[in-house]
Amino acid sequence: MNEHLRKLDDFTRERTDDIDKLTNLHHLAQESLQKLREKINKLIDKLEKDCACRLEEMYKKLDERLHEKITKGMLIREQMQILLTTMKEEENYAETLAFLAYKKSQDKLLESDDLLNSMGKSQFTISFKANPEVESCLAQLETLGELQTGVQDWVKEQDHVYKVTGSKAHKISVKSDKKVNEIWGGCQLTDGSFVLADTGNQKVKLLNSQFILKSCMDISPMYPNSVCQISAQEVAVSTGCDNDRKEIWLISTKNGWLTLNDRLKLDHICGCIAFRNGHLFVSSNTALYVYTQSGHVISKLHEDTSGKVTIHNFAISHDGRRIYITNMDKHQLITLDASGNKLATFTDPKLKRPTGICIAPNRTIFVNGYDTATVMQVDSNGKTKLSTVANHAEGVYGPYSLMFVQNPSRLLVGQVSDTILSFELS
After folding, report:
1. Mean pLDDT of 266-278
2. Helix, strand, or coil here: 171?
3. Nearest CA among 192, 300, 232, 294 for reference residue 36
4. If I label 183, which of 13, 145, 173, 380 is the partner at 20 to 30 A Cα–Cα?
């Protein structure tokens, strides 16, 4: 009976998490729809602006032409009036003078006729005729996009052992770097680009999907430690693991540029950081906290004061039911449940001072030992080693961080190097 009660409690908690996921997906769908509308508005605004500019040019040309005709007409009239007055005054003078005045008046009459005939009653027009294709195209659309929905119950998958099929080293250093890159953290954005925390050079770097630098932000005297995406165009960056730096920087990635939006000041060291269901998960060296997005503490989820660095890094499973922690002091991978209770402890001779950790789509874990320069795969329960993915022979040296990238499946290794390693997986 107690076992069934526990399972029912787990079931309720899981479905509650599903509601949170659904709410988040709903928000993302609304955000995507709004972005599409903004793009359409910008396109229409541009079309309207271009058309209005052409209309203004047409109006000015016609307006200038009419003013020129009026000015010319007024000048001819003034000259004819002068000649008429002159002719009346010279009627009693010599015939030659009268004849000259007459000839001039005839010339002005011809000039006046030419002007009047050139204008006619109406020789200009200006109007706007709408492009029928615009309205017709919009009228034919039934929707702005495809809406998809579905429910898929959680099913336990067999842990898949990934195999390395190739590797590449991508240069990530810039001319202004004064030291060798130390990539302590990073994340991939929804548009495929990457944000990296180069702790050694005190910089946050934005690269496109081909690892070409787009923007670089110097945050000295702070040291960027960990990065996570919190919205479509914003990331949160923790600023190091010492007592003097207790801030999280909220940085915009809009239009391919890194700009500071805000800073959250906390009461403890800011180590690793993650974002889930509107909450920020932040580690100190010995504890894991949950915060609101505005920086208000909700709870202390887990704490281990048995050493100096018992929580170096962590990763949250895709369903939110498990949290995996690297304990550097004890060379352990710790598995917690969503409430912070310990479920499993994993150790391995090649897992010395574990630093980087990430989770694959099939819920298996990738973790590395810093001292042993080894990356390994562990099952989703956090109990069994599945394989050694890479080590010093494959170019791993001083690994700090791991990122799993999909389409195609790749494992990125950030380390003490001016390049980031990319291992192709199958």
Report:
1. 93
2. strand
3. 232
4. 380
